[in-house]
Every structure is written in structure tokens, then in C-alpha cells.
Amino acid sequence: MVRGRNAGERAGRAVYNLAVAGGFVFMVLPILLVLWLSLFSNEILTFPPDGYSLRWYQGLLGQQQFIAGFLTSLQVAVLATVLGLLVSVPASLALTRLEFRGRQAILQLLLAPLVVPAIVIGTSLYVLFVEIEIATDLPAVGSVVGLSLAHVLITIPWCVRLVTANLIGVNPAIEEAAASLGARPATVVFKVTLPLIWPGIVAAGLFGFVTSFGNLEISLFLIAPGQTTLPIAILQYLAWKIDPTIAAVSAMQILVIAAGLLITDRFVSLSRVV
Amino acid sequence: MSTVTLEAVSKHYGDAVAVARVDLDVAQGELVVLLGPSGCGKTTTLRMIAGFIEATSGTIRIGARDVTNDPPYRRNVGLVFQNYALFPHLTVFENVAFGLRRRKVAEADIARRVASALEMVQLGALAQRLPRQMSGGQQQRVALARALVIEPDVLLLDEPLSNLDAKLRQDVRVEIRRLQQSLGLTTIMVTHDQEEAMTMGDRLVVMSGGLVQQTGSPRALYQRPANRFVAGFVGRSNFLDGRATGSGFVTKSGWQLRADHDLGAAGTLMLRPEAIQVGTGGPNEASGTVEDVTYLGAATELSVRLDGGDFLFVHETVDAGRSRGDRIALTVPPAALVGLSD
């Protein structure tokens, strides 16, 4: 009886470990593959490689479109993340702390960009921006600000989701204690609520940043001629050439995001808030 | 410190009545306990006094001040919660200083007042700890210091002992009572634990279904409960149905008992298990059979089926080593009869 249960338990644990390991390999293998390919010395990707070199990384420095794209993507992602948080944090506070008609509808609206295909958002925004340009003579299409505003749309769902989840996790008695000690509602938010959900806000910003940084579909419609973001630069390069340069670019992108994750994790434990 | 007055305070949620016309006067320095099962309206009442729930009707006064429509941050009440509700991101010192900073107290005064508040709850040495580095009992004492340092007009305690284990509960209970009495704090406490209520309260307010069932001292509630609910909630009791006669009570099964006081028009007779004597030698004797024996430590609870058919719990303080099926004689002193109208 006891032996049987132990054997069953052991088998169960083995299956569990296998599933975890399988999932892990499935997720990590492509990343490792990209890093490996970026070191191949061949001009045309072949297995096995003739040798290894860092020439594709050196070559990147001469490829102006990648550097310009990287900088644009960085600017857009930072702006979109900051603006996204500025919208999402107050919105999440209202959605979780106040009772009002249409609360659910507004929450669904803020999460909607996750459901609508990005290509549809891109097309719609392009039409909108063109109309705005016609009406106001302001350059909407092709400006970094315009592109960032468009990216705000896709950072908001992530930010609202993570921030509301963190807000719901705050013990309401803690905010009530602050109020009974003489803190006005705004003071409660700044002195108690926001410090408590700070890790969630950081995580939300990170997710927003990564989503914006990697976005291709929306940017494709709104970029100015001659301007480029990193994902667009990669796509354009791939259109006429397949060599490990792309792998090197991807490797750089992976390293930047990984560094971001690691640095963030030093300040707030991401596994606790996501 | 101040008095607290509730005048016909009600709270309705749509058609549901959470609290129905509660009247309450809490005197300066008095500890009043709101007691009742969950859903009886005691917590809603406390939260209306704190300002977290808006009263549907009625008036709440702290001292002479009408606070019915004041937000919580203007009421100057000290609150202690069941789950401590300390600010987890602030040190013990900053937790206690929070209310003083909101009142723009000078930094030097803050340091002095926080130190003395922490001294008061014997936590002076732990000022730089974070809440998560402390035990539940310590956290609840920090919460107490935080509530008291602002010199509130009234102290509100919401099930302050429920999250503590039995030993700590005793310690913190004694500590709260000591501080409350030595500082002369006007205090309202909510609990569902009748023992806690009896040992701590100057006065108890027993609530059920949003209504106040009875208000009185622990002794008054125990000895002269207003109705069956109060009698059943405060202490162990026997209830015998029947009717009051001129000189006492007769149960449905025909057992006649004499009382030394008027039972009015009572339809139920209440007898406390420890008021029933084992043996003969009085006007209200009966004999029966022991159906069950439960050892309680200080007493032994006997379940007795009387020969007439009535059933009684009896607490015998001498350990007589009785067992199931034993024959037993009981006597009810005439003073022990309590008549209840429902």
C-alpha cells in the first residue's frame, strides 16, 4: 500500500519534471539557436558551420539602418511606456477603488487592444492620422510623437492588467488605516497605495516597453519615409538578404531585453508581481 | 477623549437592513463591546462610526461634534484592525509616526511621541523593524501604538484578538484593557467571542439581525438576559418551555418550580447549568438519569434527563466520577429561575 503510493508519487513527479523541462527547452531553444547562428562565419546559413566569427556583430556598426532603428525604437518604447503608465495607473486606481456605472465596460475597452489584431489597429490609426494631418496641418504620420502615441495603445492593456491585479491584492484595511489616521484620499494614494504596488508598476512598465519595442504591425503604417524602427529594419533587410546579420541583430535585442529584466529583478522581485 | 452617541443609526443595502435604528451612548473612558454572530451588524456599526460606511439615517456624534457626514480622515478616531493593517513598506517608527505627520507635528515632537507610544506597548527597542519581521502579537501592539499616538477622541477595535493564538490573545487582551483604563480611553470594540466581551467590556451591546437585543453590564446580561438569543449567546444555558404561574413556573411536561421573584408572563424558563445543585434539600427537587458526562476541567458537564421528561445541562464543580446511566437528584434554587418572554 505505502510502497504503491510512493511509486505512484515518484512516477507523477517524473512526469511533472519532464513536462517542465520540455516546456523550458521549447522556450529557450530558439533563443539559444539565434545566439549560435549569429556566430557562424558562413555568408549563407549552412549546417554545420565552416567556422565561427564575430564579423556580423562588427558589420552591424556599419549598418546605419539598424542603429537608427534601434534608437527610434528605444525612444518610442520609452515614451509609450511612460505615457501608458500615466494613463494606466490612475485608470486602474479608479477601476479598483471607485464604484461607478460602466466600470466593466471601461476595463474591457482598455484591454481591447490585446484582442484587436495589431494590423487592424495600424491601418485604422493610419487613416486617423492622415485625417488629422488634413484637418490640422500637423505632421502626425511619421513623427516620433505620433508613433509613440500609437504605441501607447498597446502598452495600456499590459499596464492596466498588472496594475489592477496588484491593486486588488492590497489589503483594503491598510488604506482604511491611513484614512483613519488623517490621510486624505490623495495622500493615501501617494503615501500608501503607490508604494505598495510599486513593484507591479515597474513590471507593468517593463512589459509595456518590451511590447512596444518589438512591435512591427503598428509601426509599419505610421513610420515616415526614410525613418525606421528596429523590427522594420530587420524586415527590410530580410527582404533581400539572408545572412547571420539578422541573427546578430536579434541577439543584441535579446541581450538588451534580458539586461532590462535582470536589472529590474534586482530592485523588485518580478516573480512576485507577474 | 470624548463620548460617542448614536441616535437611531441605520444602514440599508437596497431592501436589506444591515443595522436597524441603533441607539448607543458611550461614556467618557468606557469600554463598550458590540457582540454578536457574524452578519449581526456589529462591524457595520463600527465602520459607520469610523466613517467607512455612510449611515442611511440617524446621527453619530463624537463628543458634541456631529460627524455623521464627515470623512474618516476628519473624525480623529484610532482604529485597530483584525489583520493589524500595518503599512508593510514602513518601519515600526514610521508606522506610528504616520498620523502625526498628517497632523504636521514638528519632527522633534514626532520622535518623542512615537518613542513614548512604543514604550507604552513595550516595543521601544524595535522601532527600526519592518512589520514583516515581527510576530502577530507585536504587530498588533504596533497597531495599538499607531492608533493611540494621535490622541484619538475614541478608540475603535475591530476583532483585535481574532488573528492571535490563544496564549497571545490573553496577553494582548490584558494589555489593551490596561492601557484603556490607565489612559481613560473611550473605546468601542467589536467581537463575536463572548468570553472576550465579558472579560473586557464595561458594557456589552448584544446584536442580532441588525437589531440591538440588549445593552448592559456583563453581569446584568448573564444574570438577567432580555431574551432567549442573549441568554444563548452569553454563556451556556438550559431553556424549558412552559408558562409562568403566580409563584413560579410550570414546564410543558408538568414540572412545577417555585421562584422567589415574579417571572412576569414568561413562556420560557432559563436556568444556568452552574446554578443547578446536585443533591436534595430545596423546594425545586427533581430526579433523573445521567445521559452524558463531559469533563471541562474546572467543572464536569452532566446531561441529565429528568424522570418527568425535561432535559438539563448541569455543571458540577466537584469531580464525583459519575458515568452514563447513573441516577441523580437535582435541586434548583428559587433565585436561579430566569423567565424569558420569548
Q: What is the topological layout?
A:
The complex is a heterodimer of chains A (274) and B (342).
Chain A lengths: L1 H36 L17 H8 L1 H34 L5 H9 L6 H19 L7 H25 L3 H9 L4 H29 L3 H6 L7 H11 L4 H23 L2 H4 L1
Helix pairs in contact in A: 1-11, 3-6, 3-8, 3-10, 6-8, 7-8, 8-11
Chain B lengths: L3 E10 L2 E11 L4 E5 L6 H9 L6 E6 L2 E2 L10 E4 L11 H11 L4 H14 L15 H13 L5 E5 L7 H18 L3 E5 L2 H7 L2 E6 L2 E6 L1 H6 L4 H6 L4 E7 L3 E4 L4 E3 L9 E4 L5 E2 L6 E11 L4 E7 L4 E6 L10 E5 L6 E3 L2
Parallel strand pairs in B: 3-8, 3-9, 6-7, 7-8
Antiparallel strand pairs in B: 1-2, 1-4, 4-5, 9-10, 11-12, 11-14, 12-13, 14-20, 15-19, 16-17, 16-19, 17-18
Helix pairs in contact in B: 2-3, 2-4, 3-4, 4-5
Assign the structural class of chain B, choosing from mainly alpha, mainly beta, alpha/beta, alpha+beta, or little secondary structure: alpha+beta
Please trace the helix and strand order of chain B, writing H or E for each element: EEEHEEEHHHEHEHEEHHEEEEEEEEEE
Distance linking N and C termini of chain A: 41 Å
Question: How many strands of chain B?
Answer: 20
Please state the CA-atom Rg of chain B, rounded to the nearest Å. Answer: 24 Å
Mean pLDDT of chain A: 86
N-to-C CA distance of chain B: 39 Å
